[in-house]
Model the fold of this input.
Amino acid sequence: MQPRNMSMSGVVDLAAVKAAQEAKAKAEQARAEAARQGGGAVSAVSPSSLVIDVDEAGFERDVLQRSTEVPVVIDFWAEWCEPCKQLSPLLERLTAEYNGRFVLAKIDVDANQMLMQQFGIQGIPAVFAVVAGQALPLFQGAAPEAQIRGTLDQLVQVAEERFGLTGLTVDPDGEQAGQGEQSAEPQVPAGPYDALLEAAVQALDAGDFGGAVQAYKNVLSDDPGNTEAKLGLAQAELLQRVQGADPQQVRKEAADNPGDVRAQIAAADLDLVGGHVEDAFGRLVDAVARTAGDDRDAARVRLLELFEVVGADDPRVAAARRALARALF
Done:
């Protein structure tokens, strides 16, 4: 199964952003429910389920889906690889020591050549992480244990602070789980807008962007602060705007008419959908800097909307906010 939610070069992946927000909301809701019940754990898994063998057929289930609950560290290895024989046992020991803060997925590259190619791996051992559908290269080769610990510490910190993934609760007395067993999913109470949000997601998946926009607006009309609906609306409106557009024609108009704010806005939308985040932001900051009045305000508003799609904690958003401030003042 192709790791379609991955972004190996840091581009925007709308599916991954959505998964991250859903994972964060689920984790926060689960923690709140646990607190109401006296602080008890929301779920527990057996220690053996923290290390799993993964193949191409089970990649989406065992890595992509699981990464919305807990960071998944991937160890690409092969039987003939001598450094792998040093690194793999160390990773397994650290997985047990971190006690549910991440899951270790072991992938034999000889048996899963497609996954090796999709991750762009040139040599093994190679270690990646997947968090809320986003792939992150960690290191290659048999690195020193201290370095590996530092990398894993950063991973679990980012997973918790950015995505709200605090890991799994491990039951040391739990039954031995079979390889590939799915982690127990926290049971959380249904929210009052779950049906509407699910309808919006289904509309997005079906390409009905107008329907998704309306569903998210229905949620926000009753709950203006709903984070998931705000993010979903920004995504759906962006996809609706570029639907049916001729990318070549849009980019030609923007290039031929640098002073046309509407042309620059349309091109910025395409830039973002195509993963060219800095280009989208830079294009609109430039438009703000060289215009005034309604044109300037239109470029500024669209830039703020694109910030919502990418996420406030993305460093590219922070940099663009600074550039926008300079352009305005």
